[in-house]
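Subject: sequence -> C-alpha cells, single chain

Hey, anyone have a minute? Need the predicted structure for the following. Not urgent.
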Amino acid sequence: MHDAAKGEYSAPMAPAKKPSKDATEATQLGLFGAVPRMQARTRIAPRITERDQELASRLPANLRLGTSSWTFAGWGGVLYEGRPSPSDLLADGLRAYAAHPMFRTVGIDRSHYAPLDDATLEDYARGLPDDFRAVSKVWDELTACVFPAHAKYGASASEANPDFLNAERFLTEVLPPYDRHFQKHAGPFVLEIPPMADKRLPHEGSFADRIDRFLSRVPKTYRYAFELRNPELLTGSYLEVLAAHGASHVLNVWTGMPTLKSQMAVPKLLARSPFFVSRLMLPPYTRYESRRASFEPFDRVVEPQDDTREDVLDLVRVANGRDVFVLVNNKLEGCSPETVRALAEIVVTRS
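Reply:
Had a minute. Here:
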C-alpha cells in the first residue's frame, strides 16, 4: 500500500495467499497446454504464399511481426497447411510457425501464469531458426501490484501483492531455465501490470522507484518492457526510469488504454525508447469474452482496425532502425495471422 507521507510503497502486514494450483493449471491448459511439446504425430507445414515470400523479403530487418500464440486450430488453411488438430499444434506448431518467413516473433503468454521449466523451454527452442525471438510475459505473481478481483486468485483477489517486482524471485524462479535453454531466442520480457481501481494506484514516485529497484537487479543480457493497464501510470517518472535502464514501455491496444497514437504522443516516449514492443489486443471499450464469441474460430478478419494499422505504420517509420516487436491477438480483428499479413502489406507498400 502507498504511504502518501513517505512516498513509499509498502507490503501489507500479512502476505497474500498465492493463486491456487488448480486455478493456475486450468489457465495454462487454456493457453498453450500444461505439458511441453512432444514427438509430433503429424508434421505440420506452414502455409506460405508467393505474396508472403515477397513481403517477408521486403520488410525492414528491425521489424518483427507475430501473434500472441501459435496453437489455434482455426488457423489451418490460414497459417498452416491442412487442418492440424490442437494436439498436433501443441506438438509441432511452434516449429511450423517459426518456419514462416513473415513471422519472426511470437508471444509466450503461458509464462504469465507460472514460470516455465527447463523441459518446456528446451522443447520450445528445438527447431527454431537462429534469428527467431519470442516475447515472454513474466509470471503475474511478480507483476501484479494488486491482484485482480478474479476467482482464480482466491483469497488474494483485490489484495496488495507483497512480491510485486520481487527481483530475487525473478532471478531464482523465472530466469534460470531461460539462461540454460532459451537465451538465444529470448526477446523482451513483458511485465504486465494488471489494472487496478483508482484508489489502489501507487504513487508516481513509489511506482517508479519499485521499477528502478527491479531493473537494477536483473541482468542486462535480456530486455524488459513494462505494460500498463492504467493510463494514470504512464508518467514522466515511469518513462525516465525505463530509459535509465534501457527498458521500454509496451505500446498496447487494450480496452482501457489510450490508442497507440495517443501513447506515442506522450513526451519523450518515442525518443527515449531503445526498442519497441507493441501488443495489439482489444480495441477501446471492447470485451475479451464477447469478441472471442464473435470471432471464433479465428480464421478470418471480421472487424479491420484501420486506425491501429496506421498507428503501427507510424511506429515503424519513427523507429529509425530500432527493433520493433509487434504481437497481434485474435481479438483485435478476428484472425491475427491475417492481421500480420495486412500489417506487412501496409509497411512494405507505404514505408
